[in-house]
């Protein structure tokens, strides 16, 4: 049985195949409308989430399946002290597949070890968020037509931003990738990203602090929010939260075919005026999140059309 | 040098960093054995200047992974009929299970009891928690 716990659980070929399926779904959603009829998705959300949970639920409903679950630890048996191992073994009796979000890192992996159904990591603390990575990859591929030969600027909180680490890991597997890592000193990418991913693979990268100077070089600009919940010290958060704000003036420095991505929610790191720029791809990214989750559910349940032919 | 009778059948844990033998004695739970165990501290070593040695007079399954993690320079000699029949060089094990604990407060192992603490050896000879990927530096013994 396959699970998706880490973005690298799927090979490059498997990701290409999944993104192709997601692209097909985007082109004609009605063809896939009934493929999960009679199947149930359990959404086990131990911490609040709006987009990710609704995106999973929308994906399953679009496929004709149904959804059950909970949206906070307080309304689950965790409040009574039940272990993840026990919870997932029970949920395996009720549902065909599950998406789990948990504040503790590694919780979905723990669940996968005891599950009788595929487990999808829908975010585990500051650790991994693989379906966001798939969403990002799909958006880049649809905008640029490729996942290689790109200069990617990652801007903002590169230290705590789990989407950033996952995206670097995933894009590092493609040819011709170059990264500009744009952050204040306090929020630069962890050393392991540089020493274990970028340097060993010989991937060109620069750590810089100026967004303006980076803009002309970028094919993709990936903006991130400085996340209050990742800081132990509120003073640090207040000092760093407004370091980078993307405005129309900064957008004017970028290439005409650049694409701006953001995992959302944004606070003020992208001004509302930028939304009207055709290079703003973040709401399209949210739509792609539904398609890619539909493709993932079909794939993990063995219901993708090409899988059924085999 | 102090004389310790040669072993007929047993194990010699040699090239222990001077002063570390008692920690290894405890970790391998050698105090629970009924057989004769000798600890030699600060023995002369051509290679290290000083070293510790532990001699165990009896058959025993040694946790080589644990020893390899503690100090990959340690050697383990198997003695049969008074002769050295096997000398095992240690390496850093690929997986450590319940040898070190993940100290990341955000890790699931810190929230639920009864979960094995599993660390996997990665590049640069560093261990990462299998759950949260928090790094443990095997050379310094510190989390980074």
Structure description:
- The complex is a heterodimer of chains A (310) and B (144).
- Chain A has 310 residues and is of the alpha/beta class.
- Chain A has two domains: 7-128 and 289-309, Rossmann fold (3-Layer(aba) Sandwich); 131-279, Aspartate/ornithine carbamoyltransferase (Rossmann fold).
- Helix content of chain A is 38%, strand content 15%.
- In chain A, the strands form two sheets. Chain A has a five-stranded parallel beta sheet, with helices on one face. In chain A, strands 2-1-3-4 form a four-stranded parallel beta sheet, with helices on both faces.
- The mean pLDDT of chain A is 92.
- Chain B is elongated, with a radius of gyration of 17 Å.
- Helices cover 10% and strands 39% of the residues of chain B.
- Chain B is mainly β.
- Chain B has a five-stranded antiparallel beta sheet with strand order 2-3-1-4-5, with helices on one face.
- Chain B has two domains: 10-89, Alpha-Beta Plaits, CATH 3.30.70.140; 95-143, Roll (SH3 type barrels).
- At the A-B interface, helix 4 and helix 7 of A face loops of B.
Summarize the structure.
The complex is a heterodimer of chains A (310) and B (144). Chain A folds into 2 domains: 7-128 and 289-309, 3-Layer(aba) Sandwich (Rossmann fold), CATH 3.40.50; 131-279, Aspartate/ornithine carbamoyltransferase (Rossmann fold). Helix content of chain A is 38%, strand content 15%.
Derived structural class of chain A: alpha/beta
Instruction: Quickly name the level 1 CATH class of the largest domain in chain B.
Output: Alpha Beta
What is the CA-based Rg of chain B, rounded? 17 Å
Average pLDDT confidence of chain A is 92
Helix content of chain A: 25-40%
Number of helices of chain B: 2
Give the neighbour order of strands across the main sheet of chain B: 2-3-1-4-5
Task: Tally the helices of chain A.
Answer: 12
Order of helices and strands of chain A: HEHEHEHEHEHEHEHEHHEHH
Quaternary state reads: heterodimer
Task: Estimate nothing, just give the exact number of structural domains of chain B.
Answer: 2
* Global shape of chain B: elongated
Strand order of the largest sheet of chain A: 7-6-5-8-9
């Amino acid at each position: 049985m396959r699970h998706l716990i880490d973005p690298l659980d799927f090979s490059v070929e498997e990701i290409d195949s999944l993104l192709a399926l997601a692209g097909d779904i985007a082109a004609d959603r009605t063809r896939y409308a009934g493929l999960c009829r009679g199947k149930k998705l359990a959404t086990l959300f131990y911490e609040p989430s709006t987009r990710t949970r609704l995106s999973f639920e929308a994906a399953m409903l679009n496929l004709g399946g149904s959804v059950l679950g909970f949206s906070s630890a307080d309304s689950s048996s965790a409040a009574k002290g039940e272990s993840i191992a026990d919870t997932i073994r029970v949920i395996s009796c009720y549902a065909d597949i599950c998406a789990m979000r948990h504040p503790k890192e590694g919780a979905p992996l723990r669940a996968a070890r005891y599950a009788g159904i595929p487990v999808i990591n829908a975010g585990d603390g500051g650790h991994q968020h693989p379906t966001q990575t798939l969403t990002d990859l799909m958006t880049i591929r649809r905008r640029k037509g490729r996942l290689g030969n790109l200069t990617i600027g990652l801007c903002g909180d590169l230290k705590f931003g789990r989407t950033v680490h996952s995206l670097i890991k995933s894009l590092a597997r493609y040819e011709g990738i170059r990264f500009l890592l744009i952050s204040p000193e306090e929020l630069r990418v962890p050393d392991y990203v540089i020493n274990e991913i970028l340097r060993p693979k010989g991937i060109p990268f620069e750590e810089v602090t100026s967004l303006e100077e980076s803009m002309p070089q970028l094919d993709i600009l990936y903006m991130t929010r400085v996340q209050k919940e990742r800081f132990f010290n509120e003073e640090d958060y207040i000092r760093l939260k407004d370091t980078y704000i993307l405005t129309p003036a900064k957008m004017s420095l970028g290439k005409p075919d650049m694409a701006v991505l953001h995992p959302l929610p944004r606070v003020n790191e992208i001004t509302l005026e930028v939304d009207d720029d055709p290079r703003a791809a973040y709401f399209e990214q949210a739509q792609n999140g539904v398609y890619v989750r539909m493709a993932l559910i079909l794939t993990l349940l063995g219901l993708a059309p090409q899988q059924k032919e085999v | 040098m102090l004389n310790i009778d040669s072993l007929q059948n047993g194990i010699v844990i040699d090239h222990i960093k001077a002063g570390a033998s008692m920690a290894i004695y405890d970790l391998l739970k050698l105090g629970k054995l009924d057989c004769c165990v000798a600890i030699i501290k600060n023995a002369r070593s051509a290679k290290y200047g000083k070293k510790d040695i532990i001699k165990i007079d009896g058959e025993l399954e040694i946790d080589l992974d644990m020893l390899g993690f503690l100090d990959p320079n340690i050697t383990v000699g198997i003695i049969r009929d008074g002769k050295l029949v096997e000398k095992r060089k240690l390496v850093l094990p690929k997986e450590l299970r319940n040898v070190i604990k993940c100290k990341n407060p955000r890790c699931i192992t810190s929230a639920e009891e009864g979960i094995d603490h599993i660390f996997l050896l990665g590049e640069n000879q560093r261990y990462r928690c299998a759950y949260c990927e928090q790094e443990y530096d095997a050379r310094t013994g510190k989390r980074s």
